[in-house]
Amino acid sequence: MKPEQKIGIASTAIGLAAGAVSAILGSEMLAVGAGAAGYAATFFLSKTFDDSKKIKWVLTNSMPSFFLVWLTSWIIVFNVVG
Length: 82
What we know:
The protein is an all-alpha fold. Helices cover 88% and strands 0% of the residues.
């Protein structure tokens, strides 16, 4: 499996988990903090999968997928649980 595929799968999995945690926390500030912590975890995890990638590549390729998955899972879990 290519490092880019591993980064995408990790970003999706962490985004789903961070979205669920964000919905359960209740406070908007804590929810955004959970999302930021999840992205930081994705960022550092992606650097371990492929250390040759520059920071700009990691930010532009993993951030949109993480953000969309995190936001979608946050909204879905918030509406189902709430």
